[in-house]
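Feature request disguised as a bug report, sorry. It would help if multi-protein outputs had a clear separator. Right now it looks like this:
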Amino acid sequence: MKKSLHLLALLIVFVSCKEPAHDKSDIETTKQIQSRTKEVQQVAEFKGQQVTGVTVSTTGRIFVNFPRWRKGVENSVVEITKDNQKIAYPNEEWNSWEIGTAVEDQKFVGVQSVVAFENMLYVLDTRSPLFGAVLDAPRLFVFNLIDNKLEKTYILQKGSYYPNSYINDLRVDKKNNKIYCTDSGRAGLIVLDMTSGKSSRVLDNHFSTKAEQSYLTFDNKKWVNTINSDGIALDTKNELLYYHALTGYSLYSVPTKVLANGATKEVEKSVKLVAKTGASDGMILDHNGTLYFADLENNKIMYRKKDGSIHTLVEGKKIRWADTFSIYNNYLYFTNSRINEVTPDISNMTFTLNKIALDTN
C-alpha cells in the first residue's frame, strides 16, 4: 500500500511539472505571430521628430513627412537616401517656414501626407499648423521626381473645405483623372479634377465619414479625440474607393465612377459598409486586392483578403500606431507615429519607419 501511495505521489509531481496543454492551433498561431514580429525591420528613426506619412516611389526612393503639430519641426518632407541620409525635399528653402511667420506660396506649412504616383510626388499641405484654422487654402504640391522641380500646385476651392478642415490623405485615380482626399477635421471627402483643378466636396458630415466616437482605448486608458474620415485606399481594378474614420470601426466604400461623375445624392446612395474593423489610420491595397490597415488599439497591422476575411499580419511592441503604409518590392513600409503616447515635449521620443516582407502570392 505504501509503495502504491509513493508511486501515486511521484505521478502527481510529474504531471504538475509538465507544461500546460495547448491546442495545436494555439501553438501554431503563437509561432506565426512570433515569426512575423521578428520580420519587422527598422529602416530609419527620428528622434524628437514625429513622422506620419511615408511613400516609396517606383524606383525605390523613400519619402516621409512630419506634420507641424508643434514647434520644432525641422523639415516637413524628407527623402531617406540609400546610405540612410535624411535630406530635406526638395530643398531646405521649401522646408524653412516657421510657425508665426507669414505663409508663402512655395513653402510647406503643415504637410500631412506624401504620395508617390508614377514619376510624381504629391505633397498634401493642410495649411493648418497646430491643428488651428487653415491659414489659407489647403493644397497639393506636385513635384516631378525626374528633376525634383515643382510641376503643379492644386489649390482647393472654397466650398470644398472649411476653416476647421484638416485634409488628411489622398489617392490618385488616373483612370478617372481625379484625386480623392479625406477631411478628418470636418467629416467629408474631396474630389479634385486633375485637368481643371476644380475641387468639390462629397459625403459632407455623412454618417460614413463621421467619427463614431470621441476616444480610443490603449491599455485600459482613454485617448480622447474625435477624428473623422482619415484612411483612404484606391482599388483601381474594381473601381472602388475605401475610407475609414480614425475614431471608428467601420470600413466603407464608394464606386469611383459615381464619385467622379455623380451628384451628391447619387454618391450618398452608393456608399457601402464593407466591414467592421479595428480603429485604423492609413490604408493601402496591394496588386492582389488585399487591403492593409492598422488596429491601433491592439498594436497590430491587419489585412483583408478579397474574400472578405480579415487576418493579422503582425502585432506587438514593434507596432506603435502604424500610421501610414506604402508598398515597394514586396515590402510593406509603415511609420510608427506613436500618437497616443506623445506628450508636449517629444524631444526624447523616437519615431520609426519600418518594413515587413509580404507574401509573394
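(second protein starts here, but nothing in the output says so)
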Amino acid sequence: MSRTGVKQRARVGIARLRHLIAGLLALVTAVTASACTTGDDRPSIVVTTNILGDVTREIVGDEADVTVLMKPNADPHSFGLSAVQAAELEQADLVVCNGLGLEENVLRHVDAARESGVATFAAGEAADPLTFQAADDGGPEGEKGQPDPHFWTDPDRMRKVTGLIADQVIEHVDGVESGTIRANADRYAKQLTGLTTWMEKSFGRVPADKRALVTNHHVFGYLADRFGFEVIGAVIPSGTTLASPSSSDLRSLTEAMKRAGVRTVFADSSQPKRLAEVLRTEMGGGVRVVELYSESLTAKGEGAGTYLRMMHANTTAMVTGLTGD
C-alpha cells in the first residue's frame, strides 16, 4: 500500500475514534444527569446499629434511602467506619444512633456530623434509660449509675422510640410524606404491642424461683426490669464486650450462681462462648450455655434477620433454657 493510502486509513481511524469518544462522553453525561435527577435527590437517613436500622426502615418504607452502618452479626461496641461511611454521616439528612456509649468507635463520627449541621437522634437517650446497678446487686463492676444503652430488650421502650423516630423523620427529612411515615410507625407500634403481650405470656411459664439471669455481659437489664427477672451477674462484669473478667470476677459469679441455683448462662451469638464455657469448669460441670441474639441482627434467614424475629427467638430460647422444656 502506498504512503498516501496509509495516511488516508489513519485519518479514517482517527475520525472513527473521535466519534466513539464523543458518543461515550454523551452517554456518560446522560447517565450522570439521570442519576442527579433520580437518585441523588432522594432524602438520606443513616443509622448506626442494625437493630435500629431495621426499625427505621419499617417506619420510613420507600419514602427515603436508609443506610445502616453496622453489618449483620457485628459487635456494636467494637465495629468501626470506613472513610466513605464517615462521609455518608455528614451528608445525611438525618442520623439515628443508639447513643449512651454503645457504638464506642462510631459516636465521635456522629458528633462530627452533628457539629457540621446534620440532624441527629440518639434513641437510647430518649428511651427513659435505666442505670447500671452496683456490682453487689448483680450489676457491672465500676459502672454503677452509668446509663445502660441496651434499651431495645424492652419492646415497650422500642415502641416509644418508634414514634420518636417518626417525629424526627417528619421534622428533618424533606420530601417525605408525613402521613405515610406516621401510618408506618403506627402499624409497627401495633406489632410491638403484640410482641410485648406474647413475651409476657411466654415468660409466664418460668417459675418465680427460676427467674434469674446470667449472661455473657450486662445486656438484659431492661428485659429483666420489664418482665420481672433478676440479673445475677455476667461473665464479663461490664456493660461492654470490650472489658474482660478476672479470676476473682469468675469466682464471685460462680458463688452467686451456686447460691441462686442457676445452671444456665446466656451468651451473645456474636461473641465467642469461651468465657461462658469456663464456668463449666468453675462450677464442676453441668452448666448449660444458651445462645441469644442480644446486640446484633443476623443476615436474613439466619434466625434474627429483624428486630421482631430476634425478640421472638430470644424469648423462646430463654424460656427453654430456664425451664428445661
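Even a blank line would do. Unrelated, but nice: The two ends are 92 Å apart (CA to CA).
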